[in-house]
Amino acid sequence: MKNKILTIFMLLILVANKSSATENPKNEYQEVIEAYQYCFLNTDYTKIKKILSPNLVYSYGRGEKMMKHSARAFLDNMYKNQGMVHQGCEAKATVIAASLSQAIAQIDINYLFFNNRQKHVITIEKDEEKKWKITSISKYFFDQE
Q: What is the pLDDT along the chain (145 residues), one digit of tens a residue?
């Protein structure tokens, strides 16, 4: 009888552990989104190069023309500005869509002390080594209203 109760108790623990593990899985792409926010706000060149795909396409509008840059150009700009002190800026991320191999997030950047808002839409994909990397960054500029 004692063994039966112990066996049932152990089974209940195993079932409870399994359901809690699958209930809220850790989304590794979320770590990439958080790292991107941190790197953008702090111009951290060393950390951002670890989360960018070598095939990154970075684009933004300049008037009616779209500017497109490679990962190398993006990193060169970050390197040039690394360590700059960032003042009065907030970033808020929202995941737009996600699957097992791709996630799309929107990051709203709001400068509090001057007239500038930005929206970054980033695409994150798993590479050949199953690591999440940013493959696309589209940057949009808005004036404060």
A: 555 554 554 554 554 444 444 333 457 999 999 999 988 888 888 889 999 999 999 999 988 899 999 999 999 888 887 766 665 788 999 999 999 999 999 999 888 877 778 899 999 999 999 999 999 999 998 864 4
Q: Which of 51, 140, 39, 30 is nearest to 95 (CA)?
A: 30
The sign of the dihedral angle between the CA atoms of 94, 97, 99, 104 is negative
Phi, psi of 27 (to 5 degrees): -90, 105
- DSSP-derived secondary structure for 66-78: EEEEEHHHHHHHH
Q: How far apart are CA 49 and CA 70, in angstroms?
A: 12
Is 132:32 a contact under the CB 8 Å cutoff? Answer: yes
Report yes or no on whether pTM surpasses 0.70.
Answer: yes
- CATH match of 24-142 with 2.160.10.10: no
Q: Using DSSP, state whether 139 is helix, strand or coil.
A: strand
φ, ψ (nearest 5 deg) of residue 109: -110, 125
